[in-house]
Amino acid sequence: MSPAAGAGETRVLTATPPDFSVFRKRALLAGGAGFAILLAGLFLDPDQFFRSYLLGYSLWVGIALGCMGILMLQHLSGGAWGVVLRRILEAGTRTIPFLFVLFVPMLVGIRRLYPWADAKIVSADPLLQHKAAYLNPTGFTLRAVIYFAVWSGFAFLLTRWSDAQDRTRDPGLVDRLGKLSGAGIALYVLTMTFASVDWLMSLEPHWFSTLYGVFIVMGQTLAAMAFAILALAVLAGRPPLQGKIGSRHFHDLGKLLFAFVMIWSYFAFSQFLIIWAGNLPEEIPWYLKRLTGGWQWFGLALALLQFAFPFVLLLSARLKRNPRRLAQVAAFLLAMRLVDMAWMIGPAFHPGKLSLHWMDLAAPVALGGIWLSLFARFLQEKPLLPLGDPFLMESVDHVR
Q: What is the largest CA-CA distance in the chain?
């Protein structure tokens, strides 16, 4: 491609960012309606409200954090594969500070969610007394502040330096973003490991798994990749990305989605195999609760529909090169991520008995509407491609 052609491409890409105001209003309306329904549920069944809220919150905070993880992976690895996703991932990452505000109901309902937060239960349980130095409301709150401070700090620097790259075309920012991302990935895995213990594993404080944190991180990454592909498929057929995103881009991203499905499955099966083979009384009850009373169908669905089914589909190069088909697989994986979270959270409150509540659907819709409205707001603030990235023209040429 000639320099003149490259300049022409850049001029096209500097057009005014797209307007997502209609989508934002609809998402906000859905979120507001969902929260109105949830507030009614709060008065009808406060315990269930906080359980459902945890389910919905875990899904959407996971997508936001997964966006940050993939964004840092792209900066660290370099190359053109992630350029077309950059703005989508940055918009998802920028929602992290706002998710701290949405975390407040978790603090309000801490004693309804976590046995270790109830002084009466702790006083009758020697193991909880032993763990009280870590599992206590004050520590839980302070650690959450630290997690969000770390995540928000990285989100701020990643987007700030990316904006500077667009303005200055400074090649040194590529190296700075790479170094930041190297440290960021390590801290993301570390802090999310602790957060997964606090928010999810401690629902059943007698149980533990050394693989749990990495398992949660991979689930978040898988969900974020599926969301990013779905968003890109919607945007690719509309200006200003129309003609700039082609089947080769989706083929590359489909291969990465396939890899994340494989890695998530590896950690899920490894955790199950080690605990099941060990058959220790401190560990095996976690799976027994989830493999009896109807919950076993959720487990079977995860094995078949979050691993086997997408695994077979994503083997097809033709499917990965078809934006519509790949988006359908991505949307399906997002739905299965909600099933996965329900399978991990629900049996902690209803062991050995399948129990689903209408608030389990209302909460993801409510929080999803708010999150998507924020996401769209951030996405429309910049051009949909990073104009200062040195791999931009290579990525645009990739469509041919």
A: 76
pLDDT (tens place) for every residue of the chain, 400 residues total: 333 334 444 444 544 567 788 999 999 999 999 999 999 999 999 999 999 999 999 999 999 999 999 999 999 988 778 888 999 999 999 999 999 999 999 999 999 999 999 999 999 999 999 999 999 999 999 999 999 999 999 999 999 999 999 888 888 899 999 999 999 999 999 999 999 999 999 999 999 999 999 999 999 999 999 999 999 999 987 777 877 888 889 999 999 999 999 999 999 999 999 999 998 888 999 999 999 999 999 999 999 999 999 999 999 999 999 999 999 999 999 999 999 999 999 999 998 889 999 999 999 999 999 999 999 999 999 888 888 888 887 777 665 5
Long-range contacts of 297-302 (CB under 8 A, 24+ apart): 297/354, 298/339, 298/342, 298/343, 298/354, 299/343, 301/336, 301/339, 302/268, 302/336, 302/339, 302/340, 302/343
DSSP secondary structure letters along 204-258:
STT---TTHHHHHHHHHHHHHHHHHHHHHHHHHTSTTTTTTS-HHHHHHHHHHHH
Outline where DSSP puts E strands in the chain: none
**Cα first-last separation, the chain:** 11
Question: Residues 136, 137, 142, 147: is their CA dihedral positive or negative?
Answer: positive
Please tell me the distance from the alpha carbon of residue 317 to that of residue 52, in angstroms, as a whole number: 38
Determine the residue type at 6: G
Asked, as a colleague might, if the bond just before 240 is cis with ω within 30 of 0, I would say: yes
